[in-house]
Structures are given as C-alpha cells and as structure tokens.
Amino acid sequence: LYGAAANEASHDSGESYGRPPCHQDTRREYLAHLDAWSCATEYSKPLWMHGPAGTGKSAIAQSFCEQLHARGSLSGGFFFKRGHSSRSNAQKLFPTLAYQLATVCPKFKAALAPRVANDPALVEKSLSIQLQTLILEPYHDAAPHHQFVMVIDGLDECDGEELQQEIMRCVMYAHSFGLRFLVVSRPESHIQTAVPPTSFHKLVIEASFQEVRGYLVNEFERIRTTHEAMLAVNHPWPNYDLINTLVGKSSGHFIYPSTVIRFIGDKDWNPLERLNIVMGCGEPDADSDSPFAALDQLYIQILKAVPSQFRLQRILAIASAKKEMWSLDSFSVDNIAQILQMTPANIRLTLGRLRSVILLPETDSERKLFFWHHASFPDFLSNPERAGEFYFNDFARSSLAVSVFKAFCDSHCSQPSFGHVAERRKKS
C-alpha cells in the first residue's frame, strides 16, 4: 500500500514546506468553525470549504490538519497539486488516505492488511471500489471509538473534471460510515453540481481587508527587524498610506500580499528597492524575478483550462478594453452576449470556468453584473509581459471591440446602459 500512496501529498510531507499554515491571528473564525464541525457528537455531513483563487484555502486546510494531528483526530490528508506526477492523480487519493489511517489506528490496520494481501490490485480499481475496500469496509470492521477526519485539499487541481465529480460523490457516500471528510476547492461549477446541494455542509471563504492589513503590518515588521539590509530602518516601515494601497490592491484576498511579501522579504535582495519595484517607483534589476510570477502562473493556468479559447479571448478583449472604449465598471452576461452577438448561455458557460477570478451571479438573471474577484487580474490582462498570449495590444483590442460594438449599436443604440456610446458615435 505504501508504494501506491502519494506520500508527498500529506500535510506533513517535505513538500508541505511551500504550503505554510495560516498566519498568526488570521482565519480564526474559519478554524473555529472547522473545529466545531469536527468535534460535533451528532451525525454530521461532509463539509465543502470553497472560495476563489487567493483566499488562503490551503493555508486554512494546513492549519486544520495540524490541529487535528495534535489531538489525534487526523486520519489522513491529501493536498492535490496541478501538474504533479502523483499529487494530481486521483488514483492515488484513497490508497494514500488508507495508508495514513492505518498508521494512526491499529484496529484499522489489522482490518485492512488481509484485504490488501489477498488482492494487491485493489489499488488499481475504480475510485468507488478503492473507497469501499480500502477504507470503508475495514473502517466498519475496526469500529474505532475515536472520531477521525479526512482532509482533501485542492480538489480542482486533480486531473480530470469527471474524476473531481466522482470524488465528491464518493465523499458523499462515505459519510454514512462515520468518517468525516473536509473537501477544499475553488467554487468550480462542475464540482458544485456533482452532488445534491443538501448533501454537504458548506463553508465559504470570503475576503477580509482587516486580516490582510494585519498580515501585511506583521510581515513588514518581521522583515524590518530580521533582514540584514534593514538594520538602520526605523519603525514604522512602510508608511500607513503605502500599506493602504497594498490592502486595496489585495481585494481582501491573501494571494497578492503573500506574493508581495515573499518578493520583498527575499534575503538576497534589498527590501527597500524591492518595495519600490512593487509600487512602480523603480526599475527592476535585469536579473530579478517578477514579483507577480506566482500570481501570473495561476491566472494563466485558469485561463488555459477554459475549453473555448476563441470565445474566451473575445470576452477578455471586450472586458479589458471596457474602460477605454465605453467606461463601464462591470458587465452582465447579457451585455457581453449582445456585444459579441453570442447567446447568453454560451457566455455563461465560458464565464462559469472563471469562477475563481470573477464573481458570477448564481441566479438565472443574465442582467446581473459580474465582477473581478481580485483587482490584480485586470492588471494582469493589461500587461503584455505578464499576460503573454492573453494580452491584446491596443490596436488588436480596439479593432475587435469597435467592430463588434458598432454592429451592436446599429440595432441597440437606444438601450440606456449603452446610450453614452451612441452619443459618442453621433459626435464623431
């Protein structure tokens, strides 16, 4: 069983070094919620914790695993990682969790061992058979008195949407055996629709400007007091207005400030110079890395995962040009569909793949507005060095936007939301 497990996916593996727990004094409300759910004596459904990219879901999951481990309640944890040879492989999930549970529960180990010995090929079976034979049946036979919890983080980073849905169905089935599962992922539509809404408890990770501010203040002070290049810098550093600017750019999410802090706090560089680079007040050294490299990689992965790249790029061209072209702060599905002369259903299908970076209304109303989850995403789209193939230069972007928008105005210029564009065309 050890050979079939992805041991690097556990919460305490060597690879967990790059996945730190929550920063001190942050996310206490969510950890308290998870603790109460895990300790409840009554029959409890599995819990799905979700939130958009950059809200610190994995940090919360890591902290929760450490808490469970400290009190002897963690039966196993699996942290998926996109593109990883074993951590993105769904076939590794249940063998890994079974192996971990066997190491902490002798009764379970005694019940599992003969099953694996009699049929070593169990680790190659379907997910549902793996769950049944490697975890549920031996767990039922062992009948442990202790309440165990299994944690699955980053489900959306597992290879294959169908497999992600199958894992959700397996977890829903497993809770009837007394095991408690926490599943953590982005709010992708295919995961959300995999199981009935009432079959899971849900915990939504939301933005928190106050916690981001506390994080930045504490981390900047740590850099000031520990970095060799900062010995002569007095408190406070940086100033209040600069921290306010960074907090605003974070949109209340941790991905932006955590990337900035890693960039500024690099021991091999001067934090004062690096801060100037982040704030756009200085030119980066030719050998320096971009402070947004990790963030950009995440956005590119999200965009490349959208099946209809042609439709996506037309939507991005319109959205990224909107400030210059028609001064709209946000769009509705209906607006985009009319401008691009596509059906709202097709637009929603594409935007549904971008729930990690946009806030898309859950209702059927196509006229409700959608917004960026994170302010750095439109910044990313407007920077050719960061966005790469997803960047539209001014000429290409304007040509596409103007051509489709003129066609739209010819038949829809009387609509109030676009009336100012019609006036602009008359004046020209």
- What would CATH call the class of the largest domain? Alpha Beta
The percentage of residues in β strands lies in 5-15%
Main pleated sheet:
5 strands, parallel
Average residue-wise pLDDT: 83
Number of domains: 3
Distance between the termini: 73 Å
* Portion of residues within helices: 40-55%
CATH third-tier fold name of the largest domain: Rossmann fold
Biggest sheet: strand arrangement: 2-3-4-1-5
Radius of gyration: 25 Å
Organism: Favolaschia claudopus
Protein name: NACHT domain-containing protein
Pfam families: NPHP3_N
InterPro entries: NPHP3-like_N (IPR056884), P-loop_NTPase (IPR027417)
Secondary structure layout:
Blueprint: H1 28-39, E1 47-50, H2 57-70, E2 74-79, H3 93-104, H4 106-118, H5 127-142, E3 149-153, H6 161-174, E4 180-185, H7 189-192, E5 201-204, H8 209-226, H9 240-250, H10 255-264, H11 271-278, H12 293-304, H13 309-325, E6 331-332, H14 333-340, H15 344-352, E7 358-359, E8 369-372, H16 376-381, H17 384-387, H18 394-412, H19 419-427
Q: What are the key terms here?
A:
NPHP3-like_N; P-loop_NTPase; repeat; NACHT domain-containing protein; 5-stranded parallel beta sheet; 428 residues; Rossmann fold; 3-stranded antiparallel beta sheet; alpha/beta; globular
Written description of the protein model:
There is one protein chain. With 428 residues, the chain is α/β, with parallel strands linked by helices. It has helices at 28-39, 57-70, 93-104, 106-118, 127-142, 161-174, 189-192, 209-226, 240-250, 255-264, 271-278, 293-304, 309-325, 333-340, 344-352, 376-381, 384-387, 394-412, 419-427; strands at 47-50, 74-79, 149-153, 180-185, 201-204, 331-332, 358-359, 369-372. Strand 3 (149-153), helix 6 and strand 4 (180-185) form a beta-alpha-beta unit. Helices cover 50% and strands 8% of the residues. The strands form two sheets. A five-stranded parallel beta sheet has the order 2-3-4-1-5, sandwiched between helices. A three-stranded antiparallel beta sheet has the order 6-8-7. Helix 3 crosses helix 4 (106-118), helix 5 packs parallel to helix 6 (161-174) and helix 13 (309-325) crosses helix 18. The longest helix is centred in the last third of the chain and has 19 residues, at 394-412. The chain contains 19 helices and eight strands. The protein folds into three domains: 2-204, Rossmann fold; 209-291, no CATH class; 297-427.
